[in-house]
Amino acid sequence: MKKKIAILGSTGSIGRTSLKIFQKNLRQFNICVLSANLNYNLINTQIKKYKPKYFIITNKEVYNKIKIKFKKNKVKILNDFSDLPKSKKKFDITVSAIVGIAGLKPTLKFIKISKKVLLANKETAICGSHIIKKICKKNNSKIIPIDSEHFSINQLTNNCKDNEIKKIYITASGGPFLRKKIKFFKNIKAVEAIKHPKWSMGKKISIDSSNLMNKVLEVIEAIRLFPFRSDKYEIIIHPQSLVHAIVSFKNGQTKFLYHETDMSIPISNAIYENKVDIETLSKFKNNFTNSFDALRFEKVDKKRFPIVTFLTKNIHMNSGAIILNASNEVLVDSFIKNKIGFNDIYSYLRRVFRDRDFKKYAVKKNPDIKEIYKIDNWARKKTFEIIEGKK
Ligand code: NDP
Ligand code: MG
Predict the structure, then answer these.
(1) Tens of pLDDT along 70-88?
(2) pLDDT score at 314
(3) 32 CA distance to ligand 2 middle (Å)
């Protein structure tokens, strides 16, 4: 029997890479559900090419257009994840690759109805990992993180206890501005920030990578997903992006995981549980000797990347991370639309964190889904007020 597949965010960078991998083996995989938001042209192409049973399109206008266009087609076009009919058979693999908090509800829904969820959507892990864990336990589902750093930590620490581990380093390429003079940061435009030197990714994560917010979010994601103490994590600059995580054990060993900067490696290893010949799926040749002189590591310069100072206890333990995530989503979007400058992302975040109501929302431990949205909404509203100069 073919494996039943769903890809949430199929038109995005991770979604497209995942589709390419599944497409190489359609005798084994049945692409049953795809989902997207705005990308009309690519939704069209994916319906024709992959013939999914359901295509969920969140944006109402695009949904209406596609629904009319494919009214004679077998594919069922839905506007909401809740419209998906119940099925007795679980999905074998779901890839969670929507960007931002928009991925939270769909991911939680699919964890209930999937055997295995490949989790790329870090914002979901950051805001709702406690709910994810409960749902996984109740429904006997498995989460495999595919963000390359988390995929590596998972591989390196499999079955380890906290007391065996001394330190976990999450690597950062340093993005396009690693060597740029700080005095020029204020003039950085979104087009420059989106151009990542090593990875090809969606806009939001590329901008998050340019100021190291992506690493801040990744450390929080790791703390939420793995059972290791928060003070064991450190961000370290590794411009070549070939080593994704390094774990120092108390027994004197240090292990790292090395792979080319191609997301098809963690994704396909998660799909095939490490039993895959990557060269049949990806254009990269697995040739370690090409990078004999490339493995360099540096400490993070906090003057250049002040955003890393947001990694405090408040963020690690409680709902401060939901606020950080929501405010950052608003600020990145405003930066892309040229409404604020590059340095404003950091300074406006600080203002949100210094607001007199911040603590009230940030101290909440393990909020339920309603409370998550309440905290998220407060942070968005506050950030908009700051951007518009009302605060
Ligand atoms: P993209 O921006 O390339 O794709 C985002 C996907 O989400 C698209 O399919 C988009 O649809 C869909 N989407 C956007 N907004 C909504 C919404 N409101 N409702 C429903 N669907 C929506 O992002 P990436 O693929 O780069 O990243 C996806 C996630 O994976 C992020 O959380 C990111 O942090 C994480 N990640 C990404 C990596 C990468 O290499 N790209 C690496 C590690 C983690 P449409 O295109 O139709 O608008
Ligand atoms: Mg990553």
Answers:
(1) 999 999 999 999 999 999 9
(2) 65
(3) 27
Residue owning the nearest CA to atom 8 of ligand 1: 12
CA distances from 275 to 172, 266, 270, 271 (A): 27, 12, 9, 9
| pLDDT score of 280 | 83
Average pLDDT of span 231-258? 96
Q: Which residues pair with 169 in a beta bridge?
A: 234, 246
Neighbours of 317 (CB within 10 A): 15
Question: Which residue in the block uniquely carries the two structure tokens 């690759």?
Answer: 97
- Strands of the sheet with 243-249, listed across from one edge: 233-237, 165-172, 243-249, 254-258
Query: Are the C-beta atoms of residues 196 and 207 closer than 8 Å to each other?
Result: no
So what's the pLDDT on residue 21? 96
**Structural domains of the chain ordered from first start:** 3-145 (3.40.50.720), 146-306 (no CATH), 317-391 (1.10.1740.10)
Using a 6 Å cutoff on CB, does residue 58 contact ligand 1? yes
Nearest CA among 140, 163, 156 for reference residue 222: 156
Is the Cβ atom of 372 under 6 angstroms away from ligand 1? no
Q: Measured from the CB, is residue 155 less than 6 Å from ligand 1?
A: no
Side-chain-side CA neighbours of 270 within 13 Å: the count stands at 29
Ligand number nearest to the C-alpha of 13 = 1
| Whole-number pLDDT of residue 159 | 85
pLDDT value at residue 132? 96
How far, in Å, are 29, 53, 73, 271, 370 from residue 146 at the CA level? Answer: 19, 25, 33, 10, 27
**Which residue among 205, 259, 267, 333 is best mutated to probe the pocket of ligand 1, counting the most ligand atoms within 8 A of its Cβ?**
205
- For 364-391, give one letter per residue: b (16+ CB within 10 A) or e: beebeeeebbbbbebbbebbeebbeeee
**What is the distance in A from the centroid of ligand 1 to the CA of 136?**
23
CA 82 – CA 111 distance, rounded (Å): 14
Among candidate residues 274, 278, 270, 285, the one with its CA nearest the CA of residue 24: 278
**Higher-pLDDT residue of 159, 162:** 162
Q: How confident is the model at residue 340 (pLDDT cuts 50, 70, 90)?
A: very high
For residue 289, report the distance from its CA to the centre of ligand 1, in Å.
33
